[in-house]
Amino acid sequence: MKDVLGMINLMNEQDDLSTLTRNRCVGAVPFAGRYRMVDFALSNMSNSGIQKVMFLANDKADSLLEHVGDGHHWGLDTTTEGGVTVLPPCHLAKDMRGDLFHLYSHIDMLKNCTETYLLLAPSGVIYHLNFENMVDYHLSNGAEITILYKHLTEMDRHAHIGHAYSLEMNDQGRVINVTPTYHALPSLTPQNIDLDTMVIKRSLLIELIENSVKRGSERYLKEIIWSHLADIDVQGYANHGYVAIMDSIDSYYAHSMHLLQPQGWHQFMINHESVYTRQEEEQETACHDNALIRNSFIAHGCSIEGYVENSILFPGVKVNRGASIKNSIVMHQCAIEANAYLEHVILDKQVVVEQGAIWRGQFAHPIVV
Fold first, then answer.
1. Distances (CA, A) of 270 to 30, 40, 163
2. 152 within 8 A of 184, measured Cβ to Cβ
3. What is the pLDDT of residue 187?
4. 92: Cβ contacts below 8 Å, ≥ 6 apart
5. Quick one: CA torsion of 339, 342, 348, 354, rounded to 10 degrees?
6. Span between the terminal Cα atoms of the chain, in Å
């Protein structure tokens, strides 16, 4: 798909992940024991034949951009015609912040691109998808914009949607109405949840941006599209596979814990081998004679002398003798000293839990350190 430019939008991230996003953007948050959230969007683009990706970067994107580098870990073409380009954030007045003005500040670069179509995707929504099929659907239906969505039914109780749009479509698949959804409960009413991913013609995107900036009435690209549903043919394209929207601590924790259930892990593992991340030197994991591990994901380089149950440990975690970890997420290079106790806890990177400390949260309200 050399005629499609990929763009990952960091400007619209819902920054409700507590201290996990104090110094990093949502796309840089670790997930599932070895990945960063952005890995899934990049892998989807690479596997779909997209070789050129732009990042619409925000103020906290430094660690994410360091992780991504030139994109070669994801198989992106790093020649002059491919690879990763960063559109740095612009320091605008408070009432002008949003992806619309960010795009407008880089409008010349958009005009100089040679690709006919843009595929815009978020970094904080995890799914597996061949974008080539979505682009084919867009072209065959003659749509001006195609929006990716997930149909949630009463069976999708693990969805944990904090902030999203619910799409109403007619029998032809055209989006005719959009309503904001907060803390959606799919068990009550089936909903078509917008996954913040779209295919749009580059010339149409430029036209929408320029016309909207002249009016000065919108701050976000989605606001423009929703306000023109009567004039623009916006089609919906369904994703029937695994989806996780990470827009709050509750959703991050719930989706992480869901991976430790057989059904959740099976859904996540489909096409797992086609998800790429930054390659690092892997060290052996040491499980000592005193260790007891139950239903947990233990990454490489960990040293376990204590008890770990229903938890996710990232690389380099050290669990000392007598320490207990239950229903928790422990990120890179953390150290749990002897006889400490953790339950329903999320530890960010390089946290040291002192000897004998007791931290106990709840499933609905995990402690974040």
1. 19, 13, 26
2. yes
3. 55
4. 101, 105
5. -30
6. 43
What number of other Cβ atoms are within 10 A of residue 190's Cβ? 13
User: How far apart are the C-alpha atoms of 48 and 53, rounded to whole Å?
Assistant: 12
Q: Provide mean pLDDT across the span 32-58.
A: 94
pTM: 0.94
- pLDDT at position 244 over 60: yes
| Token pair in block for residue 226 | 């929703």
Are residues 285 and 299 in contact, defined by beta-carbon separation less than 8 angstroms? yes
Tokens found for residue 146? 């195609």
Lookup: tokens for 5: 């430019």
Of residues 80 and 359, more confidence is placed in 359
> Cα separation of 366 and 326, whole Å?
12
Shortest CA distance to 166 belongs to which of 193, 195, 198? 193
pLDDT for 182: 74
Distance CA 186, CA 192 (A): 10
Question: Which pLDDT score is estimated for 185?
Answer: 59
Q: How many angstroms separate the CA atoms of 236 and 253, rounded? A: 29
In this prediction, residues 274-293 reach a mean pLDDT of 92
Question: CB atoms < 10 A from the CB of 241, how many?
Answer: 13
Average the pLDDT over each of 3-7, 36-40, 273-277 and give the range with the smallest value.
Answer: 273-277
Confirm if 268 and 32 have CB atoms less than 8 A apart.
yes
DSSP 360: E
- Residues 130-155 pLDDT 10s: 999 999 999 999 999 999 999 987 76
For the purposes of burial, counting CB atoms within 10 Å of the CB of 115, is it exposed (0-12), middle (13-18) or buried (19 or more)? middle
- The number of CA neighbours under 13 Å toward the Cβ of 165 is 21
| Rounded distance between C-alpha atoms, residue 312 and residue 298, angstroms | 6
Using a 10 angstrom Cβ sphere, with 0-12 exposed, 13-18 middle and 19 or more buried, the burial of residue 327 is buried
